[in-house]
Amino acid sequence: MKCNVAVMNMHDYLDGDLSREEIIQLQQHLRDCPSCHTRYEALERTDALAKCQPIEKAPEYLSDRVMKSLPSPRRPAAWTTWVRRHPAMSAAALFIVVMLSSFVSMWNQSQEFSVSGQDLEHVVIQGKKVIVPEGQKVNGDLTVVNGDVQVLGDLEGNLTVIDGNLSPLASTAHIAGQIKTIDRAVDWVWYKVSSYFGTLAYGS
């Protein structure tokens, strides 16, 4: 064994990290090499001295100083405490706010003319004017957005006019369901909410 290897093994031996075979080789080298033997004895005394020294406790004023230097814990805001105590109500309120804001945004952005219904075969569309002709029968609901509506025939369902105009019903007109004229964002939001929950109830 070379001296540089022996020096490295001395530290491992004192730490208890050498295998039995390596210990035998190190002991043999220390018997044959006076220089390494002397170095090992000095290292052994230093190690023993370090292990015998008691660990000094830090002075109390130092720990007090460290604790005072730490930032004080921030008190949670009142609304965060309420949210933690009422998670269900918080989730419901957040859902309503998000839903209403999305509906209002849709109201502000939706300026396109559209017609929807189950039976549009007998519905006449002229530009932005929707006509149910006299003598014709439209089955199901009819919804018109950003347009004018004139009913001369039969509508077997609800009529909803959003941000548009409904002409006075002709004497030949017949609407089996309800007539809803929505001109304001609040009414439109309520219409969308009731339609949304009505769709959920119908789907379940």
TrEMBL record:
Putative zinc-finger domain location is: 3-37
Q: Which UniProt keywords apply?
A: Membrane, Transmembrane, Transmembrane helix
Asked if the record carries the keyword Transmembrane helix, the reply is: yes
Is Membrane tagged as a keyword?
Answer: yes
Q: Which ranges does the record mark as transmembrane?
A: 88-107
Task: Fetch the InterPro entries from UniProt.
Answer: Anti_sigma_zinc_sf, Znf_put
Family membership, please give it. Answer: Belongs to the zinc-associated anti-sigma factor (ZAS) superfamily. Anti-sigma-W factor family.
Can you name this protein?
Answer: Anti-sigma-W factor RsiW
